[in-house]
Amino acid sequence: MAALPTLPFRKRFDLPLAKDPTARFLLLITAVMVYLAALALAGALVVSDMARRWDSGLAGGLTVQVVPLSGPGAAPLAERLEKTLAILRGTPGIRSAAALSQDQVAHLLEPWLGREGAKDPMLPVPTLVDVVASGPVDVAALQSRLSAVPGVTLDDHAAWLADLRAFAGSVELAAAGIVLLVGAAAVASVVFAVRAGLAIHRNVVELLHLMGAPDRYVSRQFEAHVLGLCLRGGACGLGLAALTLFAVTRAAGSLRASLLPDASLTLGQWAALALVPLIACVLAVLTARWTVLRTLETMP
Amino acid sequence: MDSCGMKQGSPLGAALDAALRPLHRAPGRCSTARCAHVIRFENVGLRYGTGPEVLRDISFTLPPGSFHFLTGASGAGKSSLLKLMYLAHRPSRGLISVFGQDIARLKREDLPELRRQIGVVFQDFALLGHLSALDNVALPLRMGGAGEDEVVEHCTELLKWVGLGNHLDAKPSVLSGGQQQRVAIARAVINRPRLLLADEPTGNVDDGIGMRLLYLFEEMHKLGATVVIATHNETLIRRFEHPRLHLENGRLHVLHQPASSWV
């Protein structure tokens, strides 16, 4: 097998590690690990960001629905809407309350029902009232007052926000689990590769040891070798992850109906992703050092 | 001589002296009292695993600047005794003292420095096949932290001294047995070792080259190194007037008379 080219910061190895069959394995495994970890982290960042945006947009807001009623004796929608708006505008803490026009409601329904379906006059679409709070609102008292108007429901988004926060937390937890798992697999791979290297070059390692090489002299060669492989593998993995994210962002942006949230990353989030291969390198170097020193300790 | 018994050079070895790296040893490591002997074995025994003892009740002392041949039939334990001397094995019993320090009491982190003061010429040369002759010779210097300019300067000089000035970049695979032997010897002496051990250094070369190699060891001896050479070659042993350590059935007999006086 041809030797992998060495990086410029290490021109000479006493141990011919670059020719080891494990070198390409470690390069590939590092690329895959960094790719997976970067995607997991990117997913967590996007969901977290999305949840934060929705949270800040919905927290403190209220939505009131006035549902069309059928049957004899049912009060007209417009009359019930007027009563509802009056109650809302008279409630402390509410700055404004305005009913959404039919076009606005149709626009909200468009992604699910299509342009024509959303504007179907036969559709029993409720009238939505957008409420903007300027301070704390006693939701329970408001709910009690609105119950006097038939067909009116109040939604303070509390349940929805709780679900959203729980979902975002779960995604972040899952991403952390994936990153930890990938990290553990990377550590195991480095341990395997270094042990294989030590076994392949046992004679040379023993010779260096007998000639008076300090343990760190030997371990530094493995560390430099592993660092070179991880830097290259990490760069490949990060590059592939960036391409994947770019493709996903493009695909999400091209959807006609904006069902998917904005998946683009900020500069700070890209910087966080760039740290993944660097952290992988640090982890790999420390693992290589630990493995070599543990093995050398068994020599007289 | 300095406090360690190292001579400051001799006319014959002036070129070799110049080629070798100047002494860079930690001060205070080898006071005169500590260097009263280079190697001391007291009732040393060695067994491999649960097998029988291959070396039994070995006791001897090598004073600084001495030169000994180590002889004995094949399987008598010459290589095992050398391995104990260069700290490749720990004894099963007994005491080994190197440069005045009981190796059983030494900390692990002190051993590399001690080992770098011992030059070893291995029976199979033990050259690293992927490194050039110069890089092989440079190993002891680099692992001791020498600067690259110093490494190249001294290794080049020494390889010229052993007649390999035109083979600095040659890999061992393209060198003859005698040339490989000289690279191995150059590597063993480049760090100006206080103790130079050689395991059958003339085993793979003809008598002419063997004689030249022995003269090289003589020069190192004249520069103050304590030398022990394990060999079967009676011709060489008789040519050089040095006492011998003779191993027989795992026991050591120190014969102080020069070989030429034997019948």
Give a structural overview.
The complex is a heterodimer of chains A (300) and B (263). Chain A is α+β, with helices and mostly antiparallel strands. Chain A has two domains: 17-56 and 161-296, no CATH class; 60-156, Alpha-Beta Plaits (2-Layer Sandwich). Helices cover 66% and strands 7% of the residues of chain A. Chain A is built from eight helices and four strands; from the N terminus they run H-E-H-E-H-E-H-E-H-H-H-H. Chain A has helices at residues 21-58, 77-89, 102-118, 139-146, 158-200, 202-210, 215-253, 267-296, and strands at residues 62-66, 94-99, 127-133, 152-155. Residues 1-10 of chain A have low confidence and may be disordered. By secondary structure, chain B is of the alpha/beta class. Chain B has a domain at 14-126 and 192-261: 3-Layer(aba) Sandwich (Rossmann fold), CATH 3.40.50.300. In chain B, 30% of the residues lie in helices and 22% in strands. Chain B is built from eight helices and ten strands. Chain B has helices at residues 14-19, 78-85, 111-115, 133-143, 148-161, 177-189, 207-222, 234-239; strands at 39-47, 53-62, 67-72, 93-98, 101-102, 118-121, 195-199, 226-230, 244-248, 251-255. In chain B, strands 6-7-8-3-9-10 form a six-stranded mixed beta sheet, sandwiched between helices. The radius of gyration of chain B is 18 Å and the shape is globular. The N and C termini of chain B lie far apart (35 Å). Chain A binds chain B through residues 12, 14, 16, 19, 203-204, 207-208, 210-215, 217, 297, 300, and chain B through 86-90, 108-109, 111-118, 120, 126, 128, 130-131, 135, 139-140, 142-144.
